[in-house]
């Protein structure tokens, strides 16, 4: 009997795979500057790419230069306003507390991430800041999109250091 290895269709996650591939490409750029490979993409309501960003903390010496923050700033510049209602941020690693705060402030509709960050994640793992019921704005969170590839990029990076 031939085993069927075709992954079962996942209607919630499958539609974000293409955007996550872009975020993975962006993550790869971070390592050139000696940064941990994390990449992010902001999509507009119609699904077009508004902005991208990768971790640039080492490259720029800026403690706030996480992929998500850079992508949100560029998306706001592209739109000409700080409110990113209707937008989706796609990122390879679960956002930290700072980025979860920035996502709150930006009013994005949705956060999609790949790998969980059990040590510092603020979107479901260690905290769940983005969906805290005490806050008015709570973006939808979809986790686990291409999670293995996103995690592998990080493990490979730390192994080769
Ligand atoms: Zn962060």
UniProtKB/TrEMBL annotation:
Q: Which GO terms describe its biological process?
A: tRNA wobble adenosine to inosine editing
* Reactions catalysed according to its record: adenosine(34) in tRNA + H2O + H(+) = inosine(34) in tRNA + NH4(+)
Instruction: State the similarity comment.
Output: Belongs to the cytidine and deoxycytidylate deaminase family. ADAT2 subfamily.
- Keyword rRNA-binding assigned: no
Cofactor (UniProt): Zn(2+)
What Pfam families would the database entry show?
dCMP_cyt_deam_1
* Domain CMP/dCMP-type deaminase, chain residue ranges per copy: 14-126
Which species is this record about? Streptomyces colonosanans
Q: What is its EC number?
A: 3.5.4.33
Q: Which domain of life is it from?
A: Bacteria
NCBIfam families, A to Z: PRK10860.1
One example of the protein's molecular function in GO is: tRNA-specific adenosine-34 deaminase activity
Q: Does the keyword Metal-binding apply?
A: yes
Top-level EC class, please? hydrolase
Q: What does this protein do?
A: Catalyzes the deamination of adenosine to inosine at the wobble position 34 of tRNA(Arg2).
Please share the entry's free-text remark on the cofactor.
Binds 1 zinc ion per subunit.
Keywords attached to this entry = Hydrolase, Metal-binding, tRNA processing, Zinc
Give the active-site positions: 68 (proton donor)
Provide the protein name.
tRNA-specific adenosine deaminase
Provide the binding site for Zn(2+): 66, 96, 99
The record, for InterPro entries, names: APOBEC/CMP_deaminase_Zn-bd, CMP_dCMP_dom, Cytidine_deaminase-like, tRNA_aden_deaminase
How is this protein organized at the quaternary level? Homodimer.
């Amino acid at each position: 009997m031939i085993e069927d290895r075709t992954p079962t269709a996942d209607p919630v996650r499958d539609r974000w795979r293409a955007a996550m591939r872009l975020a993975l490409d962006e993550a790869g750029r971070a390592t050139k500057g000696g940064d941990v490979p994390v990449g992010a993409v902001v999509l507009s309501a119609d699904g077009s790419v508004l902005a991208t960003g990768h971790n640039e903390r080492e490259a720029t010496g800026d403690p706030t230069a996480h992929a998500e923050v850079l992508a949100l700033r560029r998306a706001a510049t592209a739109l000409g306003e700080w409110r990113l209602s209707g937008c989706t941020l796609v990122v390879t690693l679960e956002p930290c507390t700072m980025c979860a705060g920035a996502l709150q402030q930006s009013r994005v509709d949705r956060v999609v991430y790949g790998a969980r960050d059990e040590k510092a994640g603020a979107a479901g793992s260690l905290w769940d800041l983005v969906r805290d019921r005490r806050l008015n704005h709570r973006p939808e969170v979809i986790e686990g999109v291409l999670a293995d590839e996103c995690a592998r990029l990080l493990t490979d990076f730390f192994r080769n250091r």
